[in-house]
Model the fold of this input.
Amino acid sequence: MPFTETALRDEYAAAVEQFSGRTLDAVRDGGGAAVPVGTTGPDVATDLDGPARRPLLAAARVLGANLLAPQLLVGAPPDEATAALLAEARRALPVPTAGTEAGALAIAWQDWAARCVLAATPHPDTGAAAPPPPAPPGPADLGWQVWSVRMAQLSVLALPGLDGAVHDAARAHTLDLARGTVRAMLRRDPTTAVRLARWLAWAQADGRPVRLEVEPVLDRIGFVGDGTARSGLELAVARALLTRAPWKGAQR
Amino acid sequence: MLTQFQTETASASRSATLAEAGTLASLMVEDEAVVSDAPTYLPEAAGAVLLAGLLLASPKPPKEKPAR
Done:
């Protein structure tokens, strides 16, 4: 058991949870900023340097494009302070290497999403013109069970303004997404379920038949979910995708 | 050994350490929860075996206590 990494993981997970809560509040407010401009103090820690700032950057790295979800969901311009923090996190913490090929591909797509949302801000990445990662294998190669779990790991991509090979797969396999959602609910795994329900909400907003009523699933997850702010953010984004559906014009 | 309980905290350096990269990867790519899978229908299971198992597992009917 890797005892040496436990404290670091707990520290970063707590930062992710705190930042998720701020982003969740911003989504509920209808487009507010996850990082309030000019706010200081240890609670926000935007003005800290050194080790105290590191967990904040790590949280921004983990949440990625989700940080700008409050604005993307209402079609507002990205919040500049949040975008600056995300850009700094991407500079300070390069793309982490995963232990498996599938994990590395998932991280590459999450990084692509962060790069895309930053492209519309004053903090574009230097590699913004880099090609997207290769398309992940589909349900025909993996089976719908494994594929749906991989899609749950890519739920951050289910945002307005993002479009790529992963989104094409989601459009083409809504039935497998629905199966994966139901399977996760039966397994009592609300974290995976809410991430897949977010994809279903995205597909429904995109005008695809999703073969499953998403609203009751979201209501159920709201009751039996794990109660974390990170899952709450997924739930809020899914609800926003359903209720604020008339977003179109996604750019590849 | 006490050394195995050494803890690692956030680094002050600009570049990510190996432990940091591993932690970030595990937070960015979370696998599904390790719980028992949904019940699977097994049509190859013999009905007689299933019936016998259910009969054996079913509770015995209550017995009437002898009147004193």
